[in-house]
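Q: What would this chain look like folded?
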Amino acid sequence: MELHPKAEHLLHLIDKHGDAVRVDVIEDEEDMDHSAVMRPAQWLVDAQMIEIKDGSTITYELTADGEHAYINGLPEKRLLDLLEDSDMTMDEARDQIGPFDIAMGQCKKNGWIEIGKDEDKNYLYITEDGRSKLADGFAIEDTLEEIADTNETSQDNVDTLIERGLVTEEQDTWSVLHLTEKGEKRLERLAEQREQEAERLETQIGDLDAETIRSGEWKSRGFRKYDVEADVETTMPGKRHPYRQYLDEVRKRFLSMGFQEAKTDLVEMEFWNFDVLFQAQDHPAREIHDKFELENPSHGDLMHDEIVERVKKMHEGGWDIESTGWDYQWNRQKASQLMLRSQTTATTIRYLAEGLESPAKVFAIDRNFRYDEIDKTHFIEFYQAEGIVKAPDLSLRDLFGYLKLFGEEIADAKKIRFRPGYFPFTEPSVELDAYHPELGWVELGGAGLFRPEVRAPLDVDDPVIAWGMGIDRLAMFKLDEDDLRELVFPQDIERLKNTPAVIME
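A: My prediction, written as structure tokens:
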């Protein structure tokens, strides 16, 4: 007779687990639902290839009171032990026996004690029956011990323990699938068929070569069939991290627009990270809790060159331009403090200092470090896409064009907006926001035109537009991610494996 494929599969599973197997074992070992086992099992029963036999086991477990009685002894036995040597008042016994009411109830019910009165006090006395009981022992204590050790017992007195709330009973029912003689014969025939099929496939041609064609051997052997829809093991090829891909694609985009890539250093002196950018030495961003300072070595070699002297004069009094500077005593030691770079502007500003000729476009994509509260959109380590454009007649309108490119094309955001901003080194300044469907409006970065206090010490006459974009946040939009931590340090390995090898066109 013809068997349903699921019934045939179950027949093999029963044989695999030893001719007779519990249904729950198949469910657990083969990760199958109960209905997925029992439906084909019923087909096999109808075909008289298996039998289903039900069974059950009873297990017992001590309750909290049972545990107490097992460890300390039955309350009634402890009371009799106390009274065996001497009589005592009821209050004295109550102080030593717990639970006292249960001990009294059991002893009174069985006639093991009597209560007498003397000088307004109730005394307890052990009876002869009580002494006999102590001598004979308490069988239910043995049963308690047996249950504590094995969760099983064959003693009749277990019902007494259940009634007293010392033990609970649990019944486990199960079904066993047994192969019949007919089922065993069917398995033998299936095994023979598999062997024959294997032999046939072995003789069939899988790879056709010239010799097989010339000899005509292919006519008698036939060709092996291939199922192009058959499931095969998924291959997980080596590929770049999705975020790494995104950074590389953005880098290519800058290069295609004619930008020169700046070489960067993670460690900078505060001079290049702050001072040359006209950021006052008492600015809050330069406090120890907002940046990471190096301990050893702690300071760099700030050479006594012309740029350093100009920056010093600019901070103290505005040098020789129409500026008041910051009006304080500039500290050379603080400017030479080594730190982990907090902005890649420290890199692009060096290119201006080295005499970058107009027109020029420079960019950098690299890591920065700032102390921050870690959440979905903040981290202490982040990538920044930094850029400057130097050319005659540049204006805020040119800057808006670049920012729109970042928001709409590089981040792929559907809605962007510009907001007035403030930065010590740019004027006018603007901030770029994009709307994220899960997080709402998210700040992508800041930008502006370098103010004269920045350009003058570097001998730069032409306007310079500059921006610093949090490229991590740009990537959140492009890669449909709502948590910066999962973007850079993903915990879902399966999701990472299933990310396409190419994520951007």
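The longest strand covers residues 50-62.
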